[in-house]
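Structural biology now treats backbone shape like a language. To illustrate, our science desk offers a sequence and the tokens encoding its fold:
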Amino acid sequence: MASLTPPQAPLKWNHTPEEVLSITNQALAQNKAVSDQVAALPQAECNFETVSLPLANAEAEVVIICEPLGFYQNVSTSHELRDASNQAEVLQRDFDVEESMRPDVFIAKVAAEINLRKSGEWEKLSDEQRRLVEKMVLDGKRAGLALPEKEREVLMKLKKELSQACLDFSKNFNEEDGVISFTLEELDGVPGDVISGYNKRTEGSKEVYDVTFKTPDIFPIFKSAHNPATRRSAQEAYEDRLKQNVPLLEKALDLRRRIAAMLGYDTWADYITEVKMVKSGKNAQDFLDDLEAKLRPVGERERNILLQLKKEEHEKRGLPFDGEFYIWDYRYYDRVYVEKTLNLDESVVKEYFPVSVVVPAILHIYQDLLGVKFIEIKDDNKDVWHPEVQQFAVWEKDAKDESAFVGYCYLDLFPRAAKYSHAAVWGLLPGYELPSGRRHYPLTAMVANLAKPTPDRPALMRHDDVTTFFHEMGHVFHGLLSRTKYARFHGTSVARDFVEAPSQMLENWCVCWEPKVLEKMSSHYETQAPLSPELIDKMIRSRYVNVGLFYLRQLFFAKFDLKVHVDKEAADYTKLWNDLRESVSLVKGGKAQPGQGTFGHIVGGYDAGYYGYTYSLVFAADMYATVFKKDPLNPALGQLYRDKILLVGGSRDETDSLEDFLGRSPNSDAFLEEVFGKAANASL
């Protein structure tokens, strides 16, 4: 296999800022030329070959050119290149708005569908081809092309303003580089290997440690700092780190309200959910309200137990106790509870998960389950945007010739300045059928922020990091193993309230909590010993500890997101953020900080959609219980999953894919039993 040459060359990552902008402008001009040709057609000549197909091919062409150029803003170390990348995305978004608002192209799309249906050619199209035609027409209706010309012009202006506000928010999010400083005494309880990774400096007459707001730096303080004043300072600074995003969010929400009204929707949530599985803002709200009602008694019981632990610890340490449970107490006493009831120390567990072992192990597990092979590209053949990035060519497991090529994958796993600060996957190139009949192959890139090595230890992962990595790899494989005819349906181009389900199934049920898998991918960084059966048992038992509080926290994010997109008037969003967190998550705050400025999902495609993280868990649990539970790592079941869920991408309705995979309509029984049954039986 090592001698096989991929039929498609990998991308080059050597663009200058000037090239990013010039190439983007050229690609957009070429795309516009195709639209102009389609728009010039007499209506009688509009059909699939003259309208739908050329527009689909042009859309794919602009994506494969512009997506990688827009990606630089998330990962490049060059300020100039990031700025150019951001400007290129502005150009593309503005262009997309203008193209989506062209009535002449919309008329051609509508005429094509009418002619196809009248001529009898409609029945000759494949299901995916018919879906393409219908989606193109629906795009135009949702874009506002039924509006009078003057209103369309206003709408286009509002859409461009919204796009810019979201881009500015994301740019601030990516480039945030603040720190908060503590003395060694204030960091009491934080693991030594974490502290050794902080920047130490002298401030006046004392030594202080600078803690960034990146997850590997700040979260150990939330979880381990004994001094509640330290945790409070860290929490409030963390929530305040992006206050410059507050006016941008206010602007975005105002624009969304105005756009929804112009398009004839009652709320932005109704506009967004129309094309989701949930179908309406009310249905999403009902789902969240119902789940909150079920979770609240569980969360209240858990909160009372953690509050008692806090009382005991404050008495032991001679600290005042006011009977309240705060946001900066949650992660700390969650850890204390696990250590006390299960004798499970997260810092000990972490020692068994060196990055150098876990990443290859997870790749190996996925490769075996899904029947593929990763071949790393190294040395002179490697071309990446940063030296730490790993580049892979992905093949079918039994590849014998180039027809078995799958695509490319890149892993950018460690934090650095101005890099995207969480974990996410970008589908930089879609897979689809080229006009020549050959395939264009996909490329996916995972960006994460795992802990780096310290002077004393190699890079180690918390089990939370392991599950996150596994989750994101699920998106990677959704992007790699989809095989659709058209780019717009490729991979994760599914309804947003389903897109998480495939990854959640693998992360939450199939793999990361399986004893044999935990043993397989663990290796103590000093002794190379795997996790012991006793330690694995404690980890699995810890899974449903405080699950009520965990899901209530997720519901807080979802309810904030939904409320700001159903309200008809602006509000004090800082107050709403803090009040809603207290009422839903059952934790009090301190100083009301503008945490909504850190809520990147709300401008990153999950607007009126955060409910989907929990909504899709219903499908994930059902898929696991029905198909995978009997034998989670069975390659035959992995192939079924490839064929019925991953391969089809968004080329058919998600409900159809689920019914095909499950052999019946999906239901919530498995999710409710898994969460509430296990939560009720968890050691409390």
User: Anything to note?
Assistant: The first strand starts at residue 179 and ends at 182. Strands lie at 179-182, 199-203, 206-212, 372-377, 390-396, 405-412, 424-429, 432-433, 439-440, 443-447. The longest helix spans residues 281-317.
